Amino acid sequence: MWNTGHSEVVKREMPTARATLDLPSCPEIVAKAREGAVAQLSSWGLIEMAFSTELIVRELVTNAIRYGHPPIRLRLLLQSTLMVEVFDASATAPHLRRARSFDEGGRGLLLVAQLADRWDTRHTREGKVIWAETSFVAGHPAAEADAVQV
């Protein structure tokens, strides 16, 4: 809740902030995508969300590189929640797997499902977007931004 010097509380929509990063389809770029996401969160004053967001970005970008087709794009949307979106040109939707204890992979989307409030796939004309939505950490001004002092 922001104090603007007035006493009336009104509902308002937060403006959407966006950050987009086009990524080459190579495994080495995953670290740069994570670093870029953390830097963007820091600039938005949301560094406390860095750990979970970094893991979500890692898993979604890795899946896009491994199973999708270029171009690959990472987008962060900040409004009443934080949305991580990864676009790729493949129409194939991912699915949760139950990895066995000796499997080397297959846990990425399960991790995303545990860290995010919601996640899903949205198909587009050019491919698909895998998105994960996370609520703000309690106590952060954006978590209480629906009511504003005016």
If you had to describe this structure to a student in words, what would you say it looks like?
The protein is α+β, with helices and mostly antiparallel strands and 150 residues long. The protein has one domain: Heat Shock Protein 90, CATH 3.30.565. Helices cover 27% and strands 28% of the residues. It has three helices and seven strands, in the order ββααββαβββ. The chain has helices at 29-43, 50-67, 108-115; strands spanning 9-11, 17-23, 72-78, 82-88, 118-124, 127-134, 147-149. The strands form two sheets. Strands 2-3-4-6-5 form a five-stranded antiparallel beta sheet. Strands 1-7 form a two-stranded antiparallel ribbon. The longest helix has 18 residues, at 50-67. It is globular and about 35 Å long. 23% of the residues are buried.
Short synopsis of the structure:
This is Histidine kinase/HSP90-like ATPase domain-containing protein. This protein has 150 residues and is of the alpha+beta class. Helix content is 27%, strand content 28%.
Radius of gyration: 17 Å
**Order of strands across the main sheet:** 2-3-4-6-5
Structural class by sheet pairing and helices: alpha+beta
- Strand fraction equals 25-35%
Percentage of residues in helical conformation: 25-40%
Kindly give the count of domains. 1
- Ranges with pLDDT <50 over ≥5 residues? 1-13, 146-150
Q: Name the overall outline.
A: globular
Biggest sheet layout = 5 strands, antiparallel
- Helix and strand element order: EEHHEEHEEE
CATH class value: Alpha Beta
- Average of per-residue pLDDT values: 80
CATH architecture: 2-Layer Sandwich
Number of strands: 7
